[in-house]
Amino acid sequence: MSPDFVPPGSVRSAAEVNEEIRALWRRTGGTLSPEERAEYELLVVEWATAIRGAVVKAA
Fold first, then answer.
1. Which phi and psi angles does 32 have, rounded to 5°?
2. What pLDDT was estimated at residue 3?
3. What DSSP assignment string belongs to the chain?
4. 50, 13 in Cβ contact below 8 A?
5. What is d(CA 38, CA 6) in angstroms, rounded to the nearest whole number?
6. Phi/psi class of residue 15: alpha, beta or left (left: φ > 0; alpha: ψ in -120 to 50)?
7. Of 15, 8, 4, nearest to 54 (Cα)?
8. For residue 17, how many C-alpha atoms fall within 13 Å in the half-sphere facing its CB?
9. Distance from the Cα of residue 11 to its chain's centroid
10. What is the separation of C-alpha 29 from the centre of its chain, rounded to a whole number of angstroms?
11. What is the pLDDT of residues 16-57, one digit of tens each?
């Protein structure tokens, strides 16, 4: 897992998490190992949480 991984519930913005997701895909060349896939899934959950938080704040 990424050394700078931040667990779910972090205060990172959706944009920050999205950039980490993009970096993961660039770093792996588009093919994820099982470990990278687990990291990706956690990042997607974190990103979705950040998006939901932004939508709630905007409402």
1. -100, 135
2. 43
3. --TT---TT----HHHHHHHHHHHHHHHTT---HHHHHHHHHHHHHHHHHHHHHHHHH-
4. yes
5. 14
6. alpha
7. 15
8. 22
9. 12
10. 17
11. 999 999 999 999 999 999 999 999 999 999 999 999 877 666
